[in-house]
Amino acid sequence: MLAMYLAVLDDRSSEEQFIDVYNTYKRLVYHTAYKIMGDSYLAEDVLQEVFLYVAKNFSKIHRENCHKLAAYLVSCSRSRAYD
User: Fold this and answer.
1) Cα–Cα distance between 11 and 29 in angstroms, integer?
2) Domain ranges in the chain?
3) CATH class given for the domain over 2-82
4) CA 18 – CA 10 distance, rounded (Å)
5) How far, in Å, CA of 2 to CA of 52, rounded?
6) pLDDT tens digits for the chain (83 residues)?
7) Residue span of the signal peptide, if any (predicted)?
């Protein structure tokens, strides 16, 4: 799964940073979607959609402030779960 995200990164030098972000926040994104949808398969789909978007736009996403990044990922997860 992670290889798919790394393949679409807009900047190859950011692979380690992306892996760190993914490993840190994947549970948060998944659980946010699961709380809304109540289905593990749909929550997994949301997780994939969110991190695919993040990978495609990784150079534009500010990662310095972890609280803002977490809030951004929760917002993305909620948005996709409600769609």
Assistant:
1) 23
2) 2-82
3) mainly alpha
4) 11
5) 10
6) 778 888 888 667 788 889 999 999 999 999 999 999 999 999 999 999 999 999 988 888 876 677 889 999 999 999 999 98
7) none
